Amino acid sequence: MRGVMSAKQHSLAALLLLVPAPTIGVLTVIVWAPGPLGQVVYGISKAWILLLPLLWLLFVERRPIEMTSPAKARGFGVTVGLGVLIAAIIIGGYLLIGTQWIDAAAVRAVAARNDLTAAWKYLALAGYLCIINSLLEEYVWRWFVFRHCAALVPRWPAVLLSALFFTIHHIFALGFQFDWRITLLGSLGVFIGGVTWSWLYLRFGTVWPGWVSHLIVDLAVFAVGWMILFPA
After folding, report:
1. Which domain holds residue 134?
2. Are residues 78 and 188 in the same domain?
3. Residue 170: is it exposed, middle or buried by C-beta count within 10 angstroms (0-12/13-18/19+)?
4. Domain ends where: 46, 66, 86?
């Protein structure tokens, strides 16, 4: 495939195959075919974005799987600092203006529709998303998507472009469940996170620093969710 396609065509094909998939999954499960069919399509879209980068590496790039040990990664001081700063902005923003902007009853209704009114279920979901899903997103959106964006455009435009791609499906997921203010704030937060974590990948060449920052930020998001769903 490399012999037929140029390097830029190769990266463009990779992005075209991956980037639309999560949006298609979200739109199918929420709008086009809610119910069992939508759940199947959504599950396929999730599996696709996880498997495609690995298959691309093995069969298109024809490179072996190599993993950088977290113990050898650099930049954890920077990434923890950035994660804590963003987390503080999220929690502080909620306490200062979010309590007036966010309709707590609407958020609780969304949680009820998703069977998340029990504290243990909420904490289980938070644990999975903060620890496992954040790492998977770094693998997909930074290791794969950012690398191919950087093959098409200069480094800083690649940071912004990969962050935009990371944000698109979140806009739909938020927009169909929450009002425009939560959707706007949430999407802006996702974009800023995408820029931050792409920059960390660019700076340190591994997903581990971005994952630590991502984990801290997700913890802050779920802390806000906890304050809304389970007020003291």
Report:
1. 72-229
2. yes
3. buried
4. 66
Cβ contact 228:200 at 8 Å: no
- Let me know whether 144 and 211 are in one domain: yes
67 or 52, higher pLDDT? 52
Three-class SS state of 73: coil
Domain count, the chain: 2
17-64 pLDDT per residue, tens: 999 999 999 999 999 999 999 999 999 999 999 999 999 999 999 999
**Alpha helix stretches (DSSP H) within 28-154:** 36-55, 76-93, 99-101, 104-113, 119-127, 134-137, 147-152
Q: pLDDT tens across 119-133, in order?
A: 999 999 999 999 999
Q: Evaluate whether 218 touches 129 at the Cβ level (below 8 Å).
A: yes
Can you tell me the distance from the alpha carbon of 198 to that of 208, in angstroms, rounded to the nearest whole number? 12
Same domain membership, residue 118 and residue 194: yes
User: Measured between alpha carbons, how far is residue 206 from residues 66, 69, 146 in Å?
Assistant: 11, 9, 12
Tens of pLDDT, residues 74-110: 999 999 999 999 999 999 999 998 888 888 998 999 9
Q: What is the CA 205 to chain-centroid distance, rounded? A: 18
Tell me how far apart the 2 most distant CA atoms of the chain are, in Å: 62
For the four alpha carbons of 108, 105, 171 and 101, in that order, the dihedral sign comes to negative
